[in-house]
Design brief:
Elements (H helix, E strand, L loop, with lengths): L5 H14 L20 H7 L4 H8 L8 H10 L4 H10 L16 H8 L6 E4 L5 E4 L1 H7 L12 H7 L12 H19 L4 H12 L1 H7 L11 E6 L3 E12 L4 E7 L5 H17 L1
Antiparallel strand pairs: 1-2, 1-5, 3-4, 4-5
Length: about 280
């Protein structure tokens, strides 16, 4: 059984914090900055925890951090998988599994996302579970990181939550249904009968008649269109290109949404940027 090493844990956290610069994690530097590396309050914000909680870890005190807290710190500090595993062991925990079931986003993918502050973008798993969004990404599709359980997957929500279809034109619904079923079947075959993909398929076979009908067609290879048509409640319908970057080690996808300059969709995307900025003030 692993035991927490508070001294090494504190030193490792301080070293990683001080080695990061604001621009490394998508934060503004500011003119009067004197701190070498990130401030504790900045790291705490990135990790979604209180500054006091994080500070106590660096001071070799406080409660024994849970696995969830350590995972949040590893992601907030943009650790590699090796560094993440080291952090878990220092905190007295067994590191999570690696590979396609891991939800730890690689530092390289995070650095790209951090620089897309003025662009709708998100990082998702191969099952369509959103791990991280840019602010404009949330403005475009809503906060899709808030779901729990199977509902984290857009494919699962598509067949179980009617409101999930509101942002898509009705004429696109039949194609999207086929695409989600085809994608889930491919992942299920690739990962095996004991995978989460297979579990999702079992749940949907029991819950959705539409899913059952499409599943039994055994359709494979239905790929997304080059242009996605999204309906936004405030700015209207937009035709957006979706560029995809794959992290093959963990099967995470970075999705970046853009519009062709000079088009109505481009103007609407610019308007959405203004609207979302005003809402954050």
């Amino acid at each position: 059984m692993l035991v927490i090493d508070r001294t090494e844990l504190a030193e490792f956290l301080r070293q990683r914090r001080e080695s990061l610069q604001p621009e490394d994690v998508g934060l503004p530097r500011g003119r009067r900055r004197r701190t070498s590396g990130l401030r504790r309050e900045e790291v705490a914000a990135l990790c979604h925890m209180s500054t006091d909680y994080y500070a106590r870890l660096e001071q070799e005190r406080g409660p024994h951090p849970s696995e969830q807290m350590i995972a949040a710190i590893a992601q907030g500090l943009h650790l590699t998988l090796d560094e993440r595993d080291h952090l878990f062991r220092l905190a007295g925990h067994t590191p999570p599994a690696r590979g396609t079931i891991s939800e730890h986003i690689s530092p390289g993918l995070l650095r790209i996302l951090d620089r897309l502050h003025d662009t709708p973008a998100e990082i998702v798993t191969e099952l369509g579970e959103t791990l991280r969004q840019t602010p404009l990404g949330k403005a475009l599709t809503g906060d899709t990181t808030r779901y729990t359980g199977p509902a984290r997957s857009i494919g699962y929500r598509w067949f179980t939550d009617p409101t999930e279809r509101d942002r898509y034109a009705p004429e696109d619904h039949p194609f999207l249904s086929r695409m989600f079923v085809s994608g889930l079947r491919e992942v299920t075959t690739r990962r095996g009968p004991d995978s989460r993909a297979a579990h999702f398929a079992t749940l949907l076979l029991a819950e959705s008649e539409e899913f059952r009908t499409l599943w039994h067609t055994h359709e494979i290879g239905v790929r997304p269109h080059d242009v996605k048509r999204l309906r936004h409640p405030e700015v209207g319908t937009m035709d957006l290109n979706c560029q995809t970057l794959l992290d093959p080690a963990q099967s995470h996808l970075l999705l970046v949404y853009t519009a062709t300059p000079g088009t109505e969709s481009y103007e609407k995307l610019q308007l959405l940027s203004v609207v979302s900025t005003e809402m954050l003030r």
